[in-house]
Design a protein that fits this description.
The complex is a heterodimer of chains A (432) and B (187).
Chain A: E1 2-5, E2 8-10, E3 13-18, E4 33-39, E5 49-53, E6 59-72, E7 75-81, H1 84-88, E8 91-92, E9 95-101, H2 102-109, E10 118-120, E11 128-133, E12 136-137, H3 138-149, E13 151-154, E14 161-165, E15 170-172, E16 183-186, E17 192-202, E18 210-214, E19 217-229, E20 241-244, H4 255-266, E21 270-277, E22 287-291, E23 296-309, E24 313-336, E25 339-349, E26 353-357, E27 361-365, E28 372-378, E29 382-386, E30 391-404, E31 409-411, E32 419-422, E33 427-430
Parallel strand pairs in A: 10-14, 15-22, 17-20, 24-30
Antiparallel strand pairs in A: 1-2, 1-5, 3-4, 4-7, 5-6, 6-7, 8-12, 9-11, 13-14, 16-21, 17-19, 18-19, 21-24, 22-23, 23-24, 24-25, 26-29, 27-28, 28-30, 32-33
Chain B: E1 2-4, E2 7-9, E3 13-23, E4 28-29, E5 35-36, E6 39-50, H1 57-67, E7 74-80, E8 83-99, E9 107-117, E10 122-123, H2 126-132, E11 148-151, E12 155-158, E13 165-168, E14 174-179
Antiparallel strand pairs in B: 1-2, 1-7, 3-6, 4-5, 6-9, 6-10, 7-8, 8-9, 11-12, 13-14
The chains are: A mainly beta (432), B mainly beta (187).
Amino acid sequence: MKIRINGITYTQIKNLSFAPEADIIGLELPINGFTADIITDAEIDPGVNVFLYDDLNNLWAKYKLIDSVRKDPETLSITAESVLRRLDRRTMNPVVYEDKPLNQILALIFRGISSNDWTTTEAINDKYITGYFPKQTARERLQWICFTCGLFVRSFFYDRVVIKSIDSTVSAVPIEKVFWRPSLGYKDPVTKVQATIYSYVEGEPQNTDKWVQVGNTYYIQTSQEMSLINPEYSDNEDDNVVSVDDVTIVNPDNISDVLSRMATYYFNRVEVDAEIVNNREFVPGDKIALPITDEDVATGYLKSTDFTFGLQAKSRIKLQQILMSKASQLKIVYMYVNKKLGSQIYMLPRGTNYQIQNPYLDITKGSGKNYKRYIYFPLQQYATGTMSAAKVTDEEDYDRALCHTGKGILIIWSVDEATLTTSSDKRIVEVG
Amino acid sequence: MWSIDGSNWDVPCTIEREAEVTASEVSGMLLNKQYFNDVIGTFMRYTISLAIPIGKESDYKYIYELLTQPVDAHAFVFPYNDGYINLTGRVEVVSDKYYLGVNNANGWRGIKFTVIANHPSKEQNLSDAISRGITPMPIMQHVDDGEVYVYDGGWEEAELETGKTYLFNSNYEFVEAAFEDADNKEY
């Protein structure tokens, strides 16, 4: 791993701690960050961007340096955090919205933060907010929005914070990336989830009315509790209630989705802890299928990834909202003409349809003058099928992209109108 | 012959070498009962037993004092197969013995020390390690038509536009933004 600050790349790093998290239910908004000791005698002032890369120059995080402390003459301890920390320092005034586009509200929340540091996915463009925000920090306001709209914040593996929808596509973890052995944990069952719905009407409040004030305008507040009972605990529904009563943008239009998400999350109290080889493929917030034995697979949302770095990286992960299934083995074989390039084994729930992205394959051979590097691309983007038997083999066809000797330029072959010209000292790419 | 910090030593000695193939703590047993070995590199370890002849006490003292300097590392050259290997390595323990002989033939003898290389003499890179497992190059998962990647220690995406020409130097670094008239451009 390496860290780049102010255009200088530091490769001598010790004690790197990087454990990004995402909260899909939206009641927490992890800031995320990392700490590390870098070997340098230079001083670095906080406030600048800090980039964390792996040895292939893949970006793992772009954060702000918030602290640097000299540990000894050669070692500087740094702490970097995502821009979400800045939202903690901003207080936002009370406001009442009616069908306010979410994008506009997010722009206000992130006001003063460069658009290079945050973004949204297209999936949230059709979301609107109705309700009342009290005086609160910008981070709490964002947290409320995530909870109400089914969003989460991804503040890692990308050069900016992304506000995105909860993913429903399942990524499968190959069995040869799962360390011995995942464990299941059970929390006390939640017997009921409950939320309060709020409505606001502009007017002059009477004595018995509850009201809020925004500037010189008064809004009369009405509220109503709604709950969903865990069907397995209908006789003792009040034993363990999760209640969200203060989020005043929960309204009659979104209460159904809110309670449904809460029930799905809290009525399912199984968690899985595991260690996997994770070179950045599995990201907090992802929905993943993880084999936990030869016969069982757990499907759930990735909450946390605590990384350990060697040449490759592994992460201790925690999966939530688990669905357990009996597993079948899917072997995907990557074929180039009649040659087997490699294979990958997955354990997937029996009877389900699968759709797994076929990877680009980067295969090197030889060394020195005989060094060759081949990139193969899949003819189909996804391997798809049904887990109809205990063992399923799926052959996926590949074609060679650009085979290249030594360093140079790689052009993805599908750019068929591009040409590559080489000479002893130049590499020229013409596109189109 | 071997050398330390540029000083050559051609004295009777035995040299033992060990190559330690070192894996990181990422290694471990997998669920499919295969061992995942995350090898970082091969580190050399040389153990030298010197037999400095009697009468060369000044050489003996010199090498003893040099080896026991409290420094982070020394630069060594040791025999390796048919040639030599350069190592930056640390010396953690230097041992010898004092002999009480007759006719005042007393003295320190038999310096023995071990050099542990601070850097791997052989290493694999992350790309090779990942490709053996046939996993995707992470940055290429979302590749689209028209994207171009430039190798600069790792693959990096370059934003190139259709209809334009781009120049990279012999070190494969991107040296020129798009220009319209490639034919009239002198490289």
